[in-house]
Amino acid sequence: MESVISSLSGVVGGLNPVVQFLAVFVIGIVPFLESHVGALVGTLTGVPVVLAAIAAIGGNLLALAIATRAGGAVARRVAARRTSGPSPRAEKVLAKVDRFGVPVACLLGPFVLATALSTFIMLSAGLDRRKVLTWQITAVVAWGIAFASIAFGTVNALS
Predict the structure, then answer these.
(1) How far, CA to CA in Å, does 76 sit from each of 19, 116, 122, 123, 125?
(2) How many angstroms separate the Cα of 1 from the Cα of each of 8, 9, 44, 50, 104?
């Protein structure tokens, strides 16, 4: 493991910082990789820890913004067509979130479902947009910083 990290650090360290930033940014956009994996991979491969965390978090927030826009649009269309209460699928989502709460769903959600996808689902089910976004942004930043810190500690321990 140490030799793989050393080899990657050598290659990545020779790249332009803009390319390093963009590579980690793209990892942050990818569903299921997101800020936590982007910050971890970026830091482990030699990208400065702050740069890796900012890039990964920024990429994940971009994906979150796109999902928010799409989820809001779906929620408006569904609400305009529906005269009765929420659909069975929406009721299922609302029941799960009612059971655990929006904070728990957002903070632990990245390990079950992509952040952007869970945002889309929660918003299209009709949950409060402000509450969902506040907790999703908190989760993206917290997990990005946590995994960058873990990677930073690992790199220092192996050095």
Answers:
(1) 39, 18, 13, 10, 10
(2) 11, 12, 11, 23, 34
Dist CA 68 CA 116 (whole Å): 8
Per-residue pLDDT of 24-41, as tens digits, reads 999 999 999 999 999 999
Q: Which residue has the higher pLDDT, 8 or 94?
A: 94
For the cut 80, the answer to whether the pLDDT of residue 6 exceeds it is: no
Give the model confidence (pLDDT) of 68-86 as tens digits: 888 878 877 876 777 666 7
Evaluated on CA atoms 126, 131, 134, 140, the torsion sign reads negative
- 0.70 exceeded by pTM: yes
Closest to 10 (Cα-Cα) out of 46, 41, 51: 46
